[in-house]
C-alpha cells in the first residue's frame, strides 16, 4: 500500500532536481483510453499476428491491411484526451530547470497536454513518410480512409506512419538525446512502462549508475521498480497529481 512518506520523498527529490528525465510507456496512454499495441489485437484484428501489422515483411505482403490498421489506431488516438498524468508532467517541465521527456508512445497526448521537450523513441503515428525515400507526406483528404496506402509524391513508393516497426532501428538522434540526458540527470522518473523492452529499459539503469534518483510509478512491480530508489505503486494519473500537490505545498 502506498504511504504518504513515499509521496513526500518523491516530491522532495523532484523539487531539488536540476535536470529531470521522464520515461513514459504504454500505461500512460492506456489511462486515456488508447489500447496498448497488444491489447488492441481484439475484435476484427484478433486473428492477425502483430508482426504482420508492424513490420516491413507484413507491409510488403499486405500494405492495405497495415494501412487500415494504423488508420484505425490513429482515429483512436485522436479521440483520446490527455489524462491527469500527462498534465502533471507538462506542469513539472515548467517548474524544472531542465526536463527531458522520453516516450515510448507514438501518440501526441504529451504535446496536447502542454509538454514541449518530447522525444518519441518509437516514432509518431500522426506523421507520415515514404517507406522508401523517407520524404514526409502530408495526407490529402480521403487518403486516410482509402484501402491502400497513398503514394509518395517524391518517388512514387508507398507511404506509411512514421513509427518504428519490428526489426527497425530506433531514431538515432532521439536515442542520442535520451542517453545523454539519462547520464546527466538528477532524477529519472519512470511512468507506465514495464521495463522489459530494450534498449529503452536501459535508461533507468544508466541514470542510476550515474547517481540519479530513480522514481518508478506503475500499478505493478517490474524490473525498473526493483532497482528504483522510490517505487510509487499505482496509475500515473492517480499518483502524479498527489506528488505535484505535495511539491506545490512544500511537502
Describe the structure.
- The chain has two domains: 4-33 and 81-122 and 170-248, TPP-binding domain (Rossmann fold), CATH 3.40.50.1220; 43-78 and 129-163, SIR2/SIRT2 'Small Domain', CATH 3.30.1600.
- The protein contains eleven helices and eight strands.
- It has helices at residues 4-16, 26-30, 50-53, 56-61, 63-79, 84-95, 109-113, 172-184, 202-209, 223-227, 236-248; strands spanning 19-24, 98-103, 118-120, 123-130, 159-163, 187-191, 213-218, 230-233.
- Strands 3-2-1-6-7-8 form a six-stranded parallel β-sheet, with helices on both faces. Strands 4-5 form a two-stranded antiparallel sheet.
- Helix 1 (4-16) packs across helix 11 and helix 6 (84-95) runs parallel beside helix 11.
- The two termini are 20 Å apart.
- The model has no long low-confidence stretch (mean pLDDT 93).
Q: Assign the structural class, choosing from mainly alpha, mainly beta, alpha/beta, alpha+beta, or little secondary structure.
A: alpha/beta
Overall CATH class of the largest domain: Alpha Beta
Query: Can you name the CATH architecture of the largest domain?
Result: 3-Layer(aba) Sandwich
The main sheet comes to: 6 strands, parallel
